[in-house]
Amino acid sequence: MLVIQEAKTTKQKKQFIKLPFSIYKDNPMWVPPIMKDELKQISPETSPFFEYCDAKFWTAWENNKCVGRVGAIINHEYNKKTGKKLGRFTRIEFIDDRNVSKKLIETAEGWLGEQGMEIIHGPLGFSNLEGQGLLIEGFDYLPSIASVYHKPYYKEHIEALGFEKENDWVEFRLTIGEDVIKKGVRGAAIVKRRYGFEVIKPESTKELQQYVKPLFRLLNDAFKELPYTTPFNDKMIDAIAGKYFKILNPKFVRIVKKDDELAAFVVGMPSLSRAMQKANGRLFPFGIYHIMKALKKPKTIDLLLTGVAPKYHTSGAAVILFAELQQEVLNMGLNQMETTGIFETNHNVISNWKNYEHIQHKRRRCFMKEIK
Question: pLDDT per position in the chain (372 positions), as tens?
């Protein structure tokens, strides 16, 4: 008999968090999160997102074994932005059993409906900096820590429950060659002269820290019209910065300024995917060692975050960012970069990636349906 249990206690939340470790056991492409971070994220006592989000989480049990999980989120700020009554399903995982996936979605949908929501969509997190979407292409490629991984059968289960496509993200692997470098340098020089842009190259983690809040303010402005986004407040910025910015290598961060105003930025990071696999959900005692080793001896660079102020969208500021970053990547003896998810309708960015030797190797999807 299948039993759905709400994850209320710390023990139950840990069971929720640990399920993927059994679903993806021995899968060479799954990148586990740090369990302690996940626990903080789904707990109202430690997550800043509960200031404007309501959420519940459930696990599915059969024969005393956890066989699935799902969460549901109501992002009230996003609903104000869109004027719609939207609810999100999140962190869904399940064995290949249609009854399990059906009961999980029905549970999330039922709670969202009780709260007055009219549409359910997902998978989505509290913010756009969590893993968004369900992987539907690219199961043979290692994801970056900013991406997602799922079993191939998930898509069939979700579509069988009446969900349809809302949006797709695509991801690319870029190979940097001499022609791209030359073209980037020429283009960057032209844009700098035309707009009077200045490039900031942080020299230390301490110097980078002073830009954290200005960068997030720019990000809020740059992303305000995008689907699924809401502004980051100071508490959220502090939480995200505490998790990521302390381990960023300033070499892979570039900032473009116009006079005293930030115009654009890009944040890259040596791929931590293999290191996170070795950490297996825990920083201590050995996880931190693998992560620090990956940061010092990278094999590829992940493009984690890019933001361009709306007033400079057509200026070519991004050309400067990537010309600078790709030169740094080459200086490290590397020639490959992984992009994060880009909406398939973002033709400007996609056309830029196609200047590189590239493959579009991953696709993930946000699904939606009306709540009955």
Answer: 999 999 999 999 999 999 999 999 999 999 999 999 999 999 999 999 999 999 999 999 999 999 999 999 999 999 999 999 999 999 999 999 999 999 999 999 999 999 999 999 999 999 999 889 999 999 999 999 999 999 999 999 999 999 999 999 999 999 998 888 888 899 999 999 999 999 999 999 889 989 999 999 999 999 999 999 999 999 899 888 877 777 888 999 999 999 989 999 999 999 999 999 999 999 999 999 999 999 988 889 999 999 999 999 899 999 999 999 998 998 889 999 999 999 999 988 888 888 889 999 999 999 999 998
Domain 2-169 sits in CATH at 3.40.630.30
- Measured from the Cβ of residue 193, the count of other Cβ atoms closer than 10 Å reads 9
Indicate the domain borders of the chain: 2-169, 177-334
Q: Looking up tokens 């960012």, which residue turns up? A: 321
Fold of 177-334: Aminopeptidase (3.40.630)
Q: How many CB atoms lie within 10 A of CB 177?
A: 15
| Phi, psi dihedral angles at 369 (to 5 degrees) | -160, 160
Q: What are phi and psi of 134, to 5 degrees?
A: -110, 130
- In the numeric block, the tokens 């992984």 are attached to 338
Helix, strand and coil content of the chain, in percent to the nearest 5, comes to 40, 25, 35
CA end-to-end distance (rounded Å), the chain: 25
